[in-house]
Amino acid sequence: MSILSLKNIKYSFGNTDILEGINLDINKGDCISIVGKSGSGKSTLLKLCADLVTQIEGEIIYNGKNYNTYNPIDLRKNISYCVQLPYLFGDNICDNLEYPFKIRKDKINKLKIKEYLNKFNLDESYLQKDINSLSGGEKQRIALIRNLIYTPDILLLDEVTSGLDYQNAKLVETLIKEMNESGVTVIWITHNLEQSESIFNKRICIEEGKIIKEEIFK
Ligand SMILES: Nc1ncnc2c1ncn2[C@@H]1O[C@H](COP(=O)(O)OP(=O)(O)OP(=O)(O)O)[C@@H](O)[C@H]1O
Ligand SMILES: [Mg+2]
Fold first, then answer.
1. How many of the other CB atoms lie within 10 Å of CB of 70?
2. What is the position in ligand 1's atom list of the atom closest to the CA of 44?
3. Residue 203 in contact with residue 217, Cβ under 8 Å?
4. Looking at the CA of 207, which ligand is closest?
5. Contact 203/215 with Cβ under 8 angstroms?
6. What is the percent of the chain where pLDDT is above 90?
7. pLDDT grade, residue 198 (50/70/90)?
8. Is 85 in the pocket of ligand 1 (CB under 6 A)?
9. What is the DSSP string of 143-166?
């Protein structure tokens, strides 16, 4: 059974159709890349999967049940979307990394936060840093940690390595692949064609709001 199915999805804004006739079955454990020209509808597709926007036609099924039968907060805890332009809130990095614990009313696990910072090639001195003092690539990694510190069921990544140098991009790729191998389903928008072949089992190409090609690698 698919973990996520998009059936005949249409999404419009005003009179403009942004996505149309989208049919997609995603299996548990898939690692899928989404490619396509700028403006083709890739981010909009992930926003639909993340329940941030709603289609005007068609339905989305998660674990056999329609999206609209779930509590949106529960859905967002299980389906985690890392946005294209990371947004940090509060004053410092600590505010951002404690947030996932706070919304779940869990005890803040400082050790886990430090562990994740280290995994992503950052250290604990970042915790007190002002959110405005970080580079684009540092912000991207903090936003990723915020999304990953509780393992999601489905991880939606929107060009999350665009601000990173080669070495850090590879590091993120390795960490995401490890999560995928431990059972997390990954859907990743990437402009990097080398990346889109190396770690994925499927590639979906979008053009002018339609899926024009679906390739299976292994
Ligand atoms: N809220 C919105 N209002 C109006 N138009 C929108 C809105 N969101 C997206 N669009 C339009 O829908 C189209 C698809 O946008 P989307 O962000 O999904 O593209 P994309 O494939 O992710 O592009 P990029 O590679 O540049 O990130 C674009 O033409 C965009 O202008
Ligand atoms: Mg986009």
1. 16
2. 18
3. yes
4. 1
5. yes
6. 87
7. confident
8. no
9. HHHHHHSS--SEEEEESTTTTS-H
